[in-house]
Design goal:
single chain, 98 residues, alpha+beta, endopeptidase fold (from Nostoc punctiforme), 3 helices, 2 strands, 33% helix, globular, protease, PPPDE_dom, hydrolase, PPPDE_sf
Length: 98
């Protein structure tokens, strides 16, 4: 639908999920895209899905190792396609956590 979603930290008990133009997230350098499949949902249905995800990802629950933007992406991908993101995407967090 021409949008990209991410999850980031802030100090408030409200959603940390945000919407940006694809590949242009302020403060980050775009590196690569990973094809996780396709989802055929009406835009309003997808919006509801993202709003539901946003209620589970509050900015004050962000944790660099255990609940970061890559965990969010993996969760979204699993729920929409049944596929996980490749292991290398969040490798550093897993290494530090173990």
């Amino acid at each position: 639908h021409g949008k990209e979603y991410g999850f980031g930290a802030h100090d408030f008990p409200s959603s940390g999920v945000f919407e940006v133009e694809p590949r242009k997230c302020p403060g980050f350098v775009y590196r690569t895209s990973v094809n996780l499949g396709e989802v055929n949902m009406h835009p309003s249905e997808f919006r509801t899905f993202i709003e539901n995800m946003a209620s589970e990802y509050h900015g004050d629950t962000y944790h660099l190792i255990s609940k970061n933007c890559n965990h969010f992406t993996d969760d979204v991908s699993c729920r929409l396609t049944g596929k996980r993101v490749p292991g290398w995407v969040n490798r550093l967090a897993r290494l530090v956590e173990s």
